[in-house]
Every structure is written in C-alpha cells, then in structure tokens.
Amino acid sequence: MYTLFRSALLSYISKIYSQQAFKPWHLLLLSFIGAYGINLLIPRDLWVQDEMRYGEVVREMLQSGNWLVMHLNGYTYPDKPALYFWLVALMSKFVGQGEFAFRLLTFISTLIAGLGLYQLGNRLLGKNGGFLACLLFGSSLLTLIVGQIARMDMLLTASTVWAWFYLLEFDGSENRQYLVYYWAICALSVAIKGPIALLFTLLPGILWQIQTHSAKGILRLRPWYGLLAMVAMVSVWIIAVIQSGSGDYLAQIWHQQLVGRTINSWSHKQPIYFYGVLLPLLIMPWAVPIFSGFKQLWSEPDPVLRSIWLFVLVPLIAISLVSGKLFIYLQPLIPALCLGGAYALSKYFPQQKISAWLAWPPVIYSVGLAALLYMVSTRYLGANAHKGIGLSIGVGAIACVQIYATRLRFYRWLFASIGCTIVFSCLVFGGMVALLNPLFSARQLANTVNSLATPAQDVAVINVTRGILNYYAKRTFVELDVTKTHTWASQHHDAVMIIKTDDIPVAFGNTNISQRCDVMLPFTVELKEYYVLAKCKL
Q1: Alpha carbon of 2 to those of 10, 383, 410: distances in Å?
Q2: Does residue 273 fall inside a structural domain?
Q3: Residues near 107 by Cβ (< 8 Å), separated by ≥ 6?
Q4: Which residues of the chain have pLDDT under 50?
Q5: Side-chain-side CA neighbours of residue 453 (13 Å)
Q6: Domain boundary among 382, 405, 440
C-alpha cells in the first residue's frame, strides 16, 4: 500500500509540473502533501491512549461484525458516535486493517478541510484570500498535530468549514439547495462528534442570521425541517439499537456523555480559561497576523466579514463552558482564525517588505521548538538521543532560514515559510515521532503477553484505563480492581497480569512478588512503567 501511495504522489507531482499554468491551489496541494502526506510513508504505531482505544473499537467492530453498537474490551463504548469508526472500518477494506487506515482518513479529512477553506476564503476575502488562509491553516501548530493523528477532530473541522461555506452561499443566493447541504453537514457533524459539534456548525449560523436579518433570520434557515430531519436520522438509529436489545447503551450515552461530560466531566476537566491560555500557542507561528486581523475585522462594516468573529467567538465561549476540555477540541476553530490572519496578510502587496512584527515570531517559535526537541531527546530517547538532537538541530536550521527570510519581500517570505513548514513537519512528525514511537506504543508489551498466554488463557489488567493496551494484543482483558488482584491471581495460577509498578505493593501487600512469579518483565508505555507477571504462585 505504501508503494501504491508513493507512486500516486509522484504521478500527481509530475502531472502538475507538466502543465503550463501553475495555479495557486496546485501549490497548496503540494504543500499539504509535503507537510502531511510524506509522513504517511513513515510507519508509526497507534499510541496510548486515545489512538489505541479507537483502534481497539474498530478491531472489535470488524471482528464481531456488530457495527450498530460499538464495544471496547467487550464492554459497550458510548464515548463517541459511530460514523468515524465506520469510515475507518470501510477504509480498512481497501488499505488493510491497521494504523495506515486511521492516518489516511485523517490526511483525507485535512485535504477536504483545506479545500473548503480555500473556497470559503475566496468567497469572503477575494481570490487570494483562500490561498493565504490555507497556507496559515496547513502550517499552524494545532493543524500539524491533529492532521497526523488518529482522531475524528479533523473530520469535524472539515464539516465545520463546509457548513459555513454553504450557509454563506445560501445567504447570498437564497438557493434552497445550499440550505439542504448546510443542514446535511450539521447532521453529519453530530454523527462525527456528537451534539457538541452543533456548537461549531449550527449555533454560530443561527446567531449570525439573527445578527444580519434580525429574529426573522432564524426562519430563513427553515429550522423545523432541519431539526426534524436530524431527529428522524437519530431516531432510526435509536430504534435499531433498541431492537437489537442494547437499550442500556443509549442510557450510557445520555448519562455518561451528554450530561456527564458537559456538567461534571470525569476526564480532561479543566478551568474555564483553559482554551484562552492555550490558543495563542496553538496558532503559532501565525498568532500575530491572526490577532491583528481580528482587531481589524472588529470595525469591518461588511456583516459577512464580521461573521468570521462570530464563528470563532461563539464556539470558543460555548466549549469553554463545557467541563471536559482538551486542546485538540480547538481544531474546528482554526480555519476561522486563519481567515482572520489572511485578512491581515491580504493588505500586503507582493513586493512589499514585511515588518518585524510579522517576520520574527516564526523565528522565535522555531527556536523554542528546537530547544524543546533537544530536551525531549536528552531526557527520553536514551541510546537514540543523538538522533533526536540531530532533528532538533535541523529545526534550529529552519530558524536560520527564517531569519534570512525576514529580509525578503512578502511573497518570497511566504513561500519560504511554506518550505520551512514542510521540512519542520517531516523532521518533527516524521523523524521525532518515529523515535518516540517505542515509548508510546504498546506493541512490544502486547507481543510479550501473547507469547506467554494462549488465546484461551486469561490476561488481566489491574487498574488500567479500559482499552488502551488491547489493540496489538488482539484480545480482550479481564479488568481487575487493584484491591481484588491478589485473590483473583490465587485462583488463576496460569494467568498473565499487566500491572503498573506503583500498584504492585497495593495489589500484593507484603508478598515478595519477584520471588513468587517466574516471569516479571518491565515495560514503559506512555512514560508509565508496567510489569507483565506470569506463572505466579500465590
């Protein structure tokens, strides 16, 4: 599959260069392929925690053939809607089950989001607006992270961009076809991420209609038809789940996810200002033009351009009020933020020399990341530290190129920034991630477990988050509370156990476990130390 993908890339690049007219979107596509597609060719495991958990959900879905109710380690999995997992499972039919299917779906989602932003930028800011917005989007730190991991947030980002685009097309033309597309994408976003997705798609759209057309603007959206269509779609799935005998699954979704995470989340619980503090870092190296653009948009008389403010501020406030927070949840806001940055950059003429406030933040950003990579390399990479240090030096070299680029005219500086982004992505998300892979992958631990236990033998995990170690073992585990471990192990002499080092004294008390178990192997996963215990006589 890697060979086929590489051949397709080379074929497309040669086709573009053979054309006489090199269009802006060609450069954009090549830059996205360089920053995101090349890293697809560098194998990487799914990492603990979320990636491994999502991988296990898909594995159990394909193994059981039950696509209606998802499972994780044999238990129902109500945390996320099914659409993303269905898409990965379908992708697996073509490219094979494994990490590549997840990462390929994320790459395709990134391209779809970029295409939508290109169209949206041209619609709002003129013919160069989409080009500039896409460049900022593809090279922002958060996009570089989310665009290369196994999560549904980039797919939600793509749906958010296209929902906004079709809403603006409807507002300008009154063509009901665009309104149908808008509601369909709103429904799709719910199927990707759950009702919280409407904070990015439907809520700002309704408020914008009120702002531009007064309260009657809501009626223009035909809300009853759209909401009824979404309810009907969800009802079909609910009825199918109930008929399958999994009604308790629906109760879990309501109590644990919709109510629990919103009001008092048990995971990722953060203060209300969490996103506001992180946001400037996550939009680097473009924080300065983005904030400048939004300052200028505040006094913009055109209500369509002012809608950029609305599509950032409303979802940001809404998700800040939700109890559970994770920096990745900000990804659907990045396209709108980049439109603000593109608005500021569009004031520059191609041959104009850029100012210091625009040129130097990317330099500082690269120097800071180079220092961070150096610290990570010396602390965590052990024998491979020299390779990590070499990559950090490479990122430092990017900073040197950016220093030279501060002397260039605007468009040359912009193209230099594209090149720096591509090299940076390959060094960090290709090279450094490959070096860190053994630290965050459970593959070696799983291989050891499978070598010690036959498929019929029990394997227990003690006080371990559900589903984070299953994927590479390709089996379900017995989940044990740490206080019940000793009793269970006494009754299952042939069992294999996975336990954190810190939990061993609590689980076995004064028992000298190293003398009671013939096998006691240490593993480090996600910077946490585990032991695999086998052949224990308790």
Answers
A1: 12, 29, 37
A2: yes
A3: 36, 37, 40, 147, 148
A4: 2, 13, 16-21
A5: 28
A6: 440
